[in-house]
Amino acid sequence: MAPSALLSPHEQPHDNPKIISKSVHAQPVPKKSPLELISQGTALPGIPSFPTFAAHRQWMLSKMALAFRVFARKGFTEGMSGHISVRDPENPHTFWTNPLSKHFALLKASDMVLVNYDGEVVGGNRSLPANAAGFQIHSAVHKARPDVTAACHTHSKYGKAWSGFNRRLEMLNQDATYFFNDAQAVYGDFNGVVFSPEEGERLAAALGPNGKGLILRNHGLLTVGSTVDEACYLYTLMERCCEVQLLTEAAAANGLAKVYVPDEAARYTFDNASDPEALYWEAQPDMEYEAEMGDGKHAS
């Protein structure tokens, strides 16, 4: 509609900025969720829900198997090291984890072991034991953080390298802002393989109430999430951020100055991109690829 249809011939828009301001700002802009912000058009749906514990459990275990296959393809295997835990939806004082000495790329839903907080195997696969060090770490994290459904830890290359500096990741780029402020922490001790509950408890305390990622000095990385998809994606992201940090440190050592993301921009990105639903969807491309490449064997 032409301006003259709203205003008199002698009152054009540039003559009366108050009218323009009033028409533009008449309605407040509704706050959008991170999924709505990233979706141009109909937003991606939220995290699936299930009518029964059994259906929910099978879905979680299938996704857990896919997470391991993602880790395998990205080169995060290291002998018997590395574990993922997923809290059982029906019995939250128990969690599922991977059997010892089974390659990540071969893991299926039926391979997973169910343990309780006392370390007893109470369900699932009984043909192989769980990882004892993994139990101490994951049980402590699940006890300390009721909001955590899943936790991931491996001895991936760049996480191990960066952990030797005993430092947080810096806000060097957009991806690093997913670990802004207290979303990341450093566990500044190393006392060998985690075989004591006290060491697991200290590690969980270092993660804090809001931590999504933890750098374990001289050890590697740990990430958590409300779904195994979220924890898996955050792990792959944190590992890549460690790689970028190391590359940046090498360039800076040759005299190039670092330029950091401003705190305001980092907070804005964190608030609008790093929530459970958005992080769940961030994992889906890699998981869908693994499901296709494995002909669905992960779900058996």
TrEMBL record:
<dbReference type="InterPro" id="IPR036409">
    <property type="entry name" value="Aldolase_II/adducin_N_sf"/>
</dbReference>
<dbReference type="Pfam" id="PF00596">
    <property type="entry name" value="Aldolase_II"/>
</dbReference>
<dbReference type="GO" id="GO:0005856">
    <property type="term" value="C:cytoskeleton"/>
</dbReference>
<feature type="domain" description="Class II aldolase/adducin N-terminal">
    <location>
        <begin position="62"/>
        <end position="246"/>
    </location>
</feature>
<dbReference type="InterPro" id="IPR051017">
    <property type="entry name" value="Aldolase-II_Adducin_sf"/>
</dbReference>
<dbReference type="GO" id="GO:0051015">
    <property type="term" value="F:actin filament binding"/>
</dbReference>
<dbReference type="InterPro" id="IPR001303">
    <property type="entry name" value="Aldolase_II/adducin_N"/>
</dbReference>
<protein>
    <recommendedName>
        <fullName>Class II aldolase/adducin N-terminal domain-containing protein</fullName>
    </recommendedName>
</protein>
